[in-house]
Amino acid sequence: YDCLEQDLEQYRDLPSITKDQVHIPLRGNLEISSDVIQIKKHAAEGIGLYRTEFLYLGRSAPPDEEEQFQSYCEILKQAEGDPVTIRTLDIGGDKFVPELNLDDEANPAMGLRAIRFSLHEEQLFKIQLRAILRASSCGRVRILFPMISGVAEIRACKKMLGDIQAQLDKEGISYDPDLAIGIMIETPSAVMIAPLLAKEVDFFSVGTNDLIQYFLAVDRGNEHVAYLYDPLHPAILRALKMTCDAANEAGIEVCICGEMAGEPLYALVLVGLGFHELSMNPACVPRVKRVLRQVSKQDGATLVKQLLLLSTSKEVSTIIEAEMRRRLPAIFAQPPIQ
Amino acid sequence: YDCLEQDLEQYRDLPSITKDQVHIPLRGNLEISSDVIQIKKHAAEGIGLYRTEFLYLGRSAPPDEEEQFQSYCEILKQAEGDPVTIRTLDIGGDKFVPELNLDDEANPAMGLRAIRFSLHEEQLFKIQLRAILRASSCGRVRILFPMISGVAEIRACKKMLGDIQAQLDKEGISYDPDLAIGIMIETPSAVMIAPLLAKEVDFFSVGTNDLIQYFLAVDRGNEHVAYLYDPLHPAILRALKMTCDAANEAGIEVCICGEMAGEPLYALVLVGLGFHELSMNPACVPRVKRVLRQVSKQDGATLVKQLLLLSTSKEVSTIIEAEMRRRLPAIFAQPPIQ
Ligand SMILES: [Mg+2]
Ligand SMILES: [Mg+2]
């Protein structure tokens, strides 16, 4: 891509709109608070994934409500009216509650983590929910629950949110009553029941990294099976399609926030699948925007139909690469840098 | 169930046929070779799942071809013409190849195991395939590959089988040229691409224990998340339905061999989903047969349609229990013993 670097600068202030006039917001993932600078630099439209873990890690006690509230408000101020999707704590449960004795978890990736941990440690969870709700009066907050696997879990989350809202009302503390509620789609069960979950929430956010891991039963950190970890596996395409179809039928937003979202080679496919927003490492925004402005959603849908007929990821990647080279030879002339 | 124990005896020699005349073979799972006695005792129709692990575990070197061949033939002889489904090695890779250094696997359930290990250790795998092929001349063998996640894997297995068959031809060693080839459906990806996989094989065998684990991202051995492990989760019902539909559309057999298969309460649902065979702990055969002979596949299909509209496993289990109590009050009068 080297020779095209200067070319990218021109996309900074252009809108992220396809040739057939579909606006696809490109948002930034926020891992640590200083990432805000990158988000500004690359003109991402707000924050599609604010990972709150960084507030909790590397310290002996979790941050209290006031500290969280301040941190969220600080980011919201810097987002200047763009939406900020705050994801509740997404870590293993052993980080702050050693009494849980999770050392014996043989497969922690399928253990007490993320929303399971939050629902288990209600007090810790309520503090975070209160801080997020209070922050929703400082800007456009959307709240996102990680690793939902069933309807009962999201209902439990909504119940707690409702209780805290009632409490805030009583205390006369303001918050956004229309706060959008979303869930990560990353467990295979969430994909299977996406039409049921779509009735419960305002938006989906697909976390492709975990989604691929669980669908293929391939630990994404395990080098011995790395050869099987494959975003273009026909099963993954079908899972993404089912999720987008369910969201679009229910009329709710569907965003993608895993590593796939930042890969320019996949941009046409993702728009064709029906994603409304992509959230990525902010540095990827200009490259993805450059591609999006030169393709149409309609062409993406046609390509997806063709891909869904294929049996292996090798066939899928061959077609995608050929198609993108044909459409945008200046960008995809070389095999993509991995 | 206690008061009904004598009643069960009468089912021993009756065929496993529904009221609408559909024959649903009930087969036994074989964990160790002595289980054959139980299979005879309870009149299971052959062996739906022969776990070959027991030949390999608890010893320093894997069994050689001749030993495996003898073991398989011994079981086949005892099966007296009933089919025996032999599953290739389904364990973690560290058992015989310590050089692999799999101790560092953070989540071994999503690591180098089962078919991944076999395809990695070709020599070990070829010995087992040769032994199974040779044994296929002693009885009705079906071969089953565990933990398939994509089309490329099953094609690799079939290629190796073909090569070994050619070699056996050259050596003048006999085997069953029509040996049925099947795969376990237990990874979520296999479910998603079931129509593609159905084109590659003669039968599916659904391993519900792992299927539930991977779909829900819940380690089935982890007590902290045991409350989430749920056979009646709406996502699981949908996964089973997708698998059965794909098999039935392709005209191949679909069997179920996880713990769900041995639960009398689920028998009507499983038949309604479209399973052709159930394989279980042989001791469960009489109870499941008693239920099957008093229900119809048609009623099962109607019940399944109703269940697929529900949002939570609680709703699903409530309907199933009410339905089974209504149909067979003498059997399901009490809440089922867990
Ligand atoms: Mg995740
Ligand atoms: Mg298994």
Helices and strands, with pairings:
The structure is a homodimer of 338-residue chains.
Chain A: H1 5-9, E1 26-30, H2 35-41, E2 47-51, H3 53-56, H4 65-79, E3 84-87, H5 114-120, H6 122-135, E4 141-145, H7 151-171, E5 180-185, H8 188-192, H9 194-198, E6 203-206, H10 208-216, H11 234-250, E7 253-256, H12 267-273, E8 277-280, H13 285-292, H14 297-307, H15 313-327, H16 329-332
Parallel strand pairs in A: 1-2, 1-8, 2-3, 3-4, 4-5, 5-6, 6-7, 7-8
Helix pairs in contact in A: 4-6, 6-7, 12-14
The complex binds magnesium ion (MG) (2 copies).
Report on the structure:
The structure is a homodimer of 338-residue chains. By secondary structure, chain A is α/β, with parallel strands linked by helices. Chain A contains 16 helices and eight strands. Chain A has helices at residues 5-9, 35-41, 53-56, 65-79, 114-120, 122-135, 151-171, 188-192, 194-198, 208-216, 234-250, 267-273, 285-292, 297-307, 313-327, 329-332, and strands at residues 26-30, 47-51, 84-87, 141-145, 180-185, 203-206, 253-256, 277-280. An eight-stranded parallel beta barrel of chain A has the order 1-2-3-4-5-6-7-8, surrounded by six helices. In chain A, helix 12 links the parallel strand 7 and strand 8 (277-280). In chain A, helix 6 packs across helix 7. Chain A is globular, with a radius of gyration of 20 Å. The model of chain A has no long low-confidence stretch (mean pLDDT 94). At the A-B interface, helix 8, helix 10 and helix 11 of A face helix 8, helix 10 and helix 11 of B. The structure holds magnesium ion (MG) (2 copies).
